[in-house]
Prior knowledge:
Blueprint: H1 7-16, E1 24-28, E2 41-42, E3 52-53, E4 57-60, E5 69-75, E6 88-92, E7 104-107, E8 111-114, E9 117-120, E10 130-131, E11 142-144, H2 152-160, E12 165-169, E13 173-179, E14 183-184, E15 195-196, H3 199-209, E16 213-220, H4 224-237, E17 240-244, H5 255-262, E18 263-269, E19 272-273, E20 277-283, E21 286-291, H6 295-313, E22 323-328, E23 339-349, E24 352-357, H7 366-371, E25 374-378, E26 389-394, H8 395-398
Amino acid sequence: MKKLTPLADALDHILERAQPMDVVESVRLQEALGRVLAAPVTSDIAVPGEDNSAMDGYALRAKDAGQALAVSQRIAAGAVPEPLTPGTAARIFTGATVPEGADAVAMQEDCVLNEGVITITADVREGQHIRRAGQDIQAGEQLLAPGRRLRPQDLGMLASVGVATVRVYRPLRVAILSTGDELLEPGQPLSPGKLYNSNRYTLQGLLQGLGMEVIDGGIVDDDAAGTREALSRAAASADVVITSGGVSVGEEDHVKDAVRSLGELGLWKLAIKPGKPLAFGHVQGTPFIGLPGNPSSVFVTFCLIARPYLLKRQGCAEIEPPSVRARADFSITRVGTRQEYLRAILSIDGEVMRVSVGENQSSGVLSAVSRSNVLAVIPPGMTVSPGDTVEVFLLDLLSG
Length: 400
Ligand SMILES: Nc1nc2c(c(=O)[nH]1)N[C@H]1C(S)=C(S)[C@@H](COP(=O)(O)OP(=O)(O)OC[C@H]3O[C@@H](n4cnc5c(N)ncnc54)[C@H](O)[C@@H]3O)O[C@H]1N2
Ligand code: MOO
């Protein structure tokens, strides 16, 4: 038997060929969620712009706190205060600018107001309850680097410094094709020997979760000319073509021949389970990834191989799947020769992260993928006993 290729070797080969995208556009913050920054963002301003109050209360000089203080002005958020008259306090609200001359804020629960004069019932420290100018962001500070996939909290931060548009890469266009004569679309009546096309929906969701544009080529006709035509059409409109099915050793499929005739095809047998067969090449110059047909294999090979490749093409700085270590609630006694990616469930038990696995880990069992929230990584040659620590890839982070 031909030696299996370690995942890392295949990934090196594929990632070396992943040229980051160079088409950049400006979008408004409202449309920027999930997009990848193409240029650094630097703040022109400090946030907060001025010292402001963290509490509703009274602004004063801390050393005056022991005496009765007349309330000399009222400062609401958004107002520009007068300098504090020495020996007085200013009524102030959360977020309002601290007047010049004040160096502390006493919260109103610690103050007694009587006919326009306050007495303070608690100790007052210099600087207390004041949010300093620039404590969040300094003027001139670089906030985000290129390659950052923008999250909701990033958008909020950019808005806080007054940025209205950002330079981002155009979303990668990824064509997906499902191969197999046995496939029907949901909504069609089922007939003997047929099954519903699930890979199309898994792949579409994974790609949309990465903020990429999906060009859905549907089910490919199972004949040589139809397959060539579908691949050629997909390659003309997309940055990457991904197929599912037809990369194993059977003759019933036309994808491999069609890719060979239109471009170049490399085939691997990877030392991973599921997801042993994998194809990578190009169709008329457009990169091509052929994932195996089994639904769990599609999911796993997308997360492990297609995802980092696509993220690199998209210009992302972080392409590795996020992982943590957790305590196994299962055992593996049979030593495998391929690195296994078990569809598993991570839970938190007090301070311990535990990972359990469903019994049926067959690569055709998609319900186990749906139930899972992590992939537990079991290296070749490893046995696992309950209580052992294993690495898990966090799926919900992977696909979002
Ligand atoms: N003699 C050998 N046979 C197989 C080997 C091998 O090394 N030698 N490898 C096995 C492994 S591992 C895998 S994985 C599969 C991969 O096969 P293909 O990529 O050629 O995929 P298909 O044969 O087209 O389909 C496999 C399986 O998946 C179902 N399928 C395909 N597409 C879809 C879809 N869009 N939605 C739902 N299900 C789909 C298909 O009906 C098959 O059951 O090969 C093994 N065989
Ligand atoms: O690689 Mo296959 O995906 O083990 O079933």
